[in-house]
Amino acid sequence: MYPLDLPRSLQPEELPAWVVEHLAQSHVPGPVDLVGHSLGALVALRVAAAHPELVRRLILISPPGITPRRSALTFGWPLVASLARARPTFLVRLAVDASRAGPANILRGARHVASADVKVEAQKVVAPTLLVWGAGDRLVPSAAAVRWLEVLANARLHIIATAAHVPMVEAPEELAVVIGKFRDER
Prior knowledge:
The chain is of the alpha/beta class.
């Protein structure tokens, strides 16, 4: 496993090229299994669409971009509702991450996620793809999975009943098992 922390200094649309360059400079043997969550899922999808030779398997967790919103403000109420249900330890982690990123980067990312429309790019993905959603996701509702399954040629879906938008925090064991089984398939 090789985790990447996307640089906050870049514009969201610059991130896929950064990932490709980072993989090349790191001499990571490819193709790789690429996992992304939320904005990171958009980045992973764009890498897989533009560079199919680099991606063996694609795992998208709560990916936005299949049903664009008019404004980042439409995430406001779902975000408040999600935070109201979050565990205090997660809220602390979120606060630390938000302070590292800064309000300008958070707003820039939210605007990008809200306006993203990746239907055409998704049709170019050839890698087997696993879509993972938390059943209680209010930010990117799992109902969007139906549209994803329509545009991704080789995709399947796993819903985690006990999770919302951040299954890696809310149901890490189940997420790890699902990803592990998908990666081990022939």
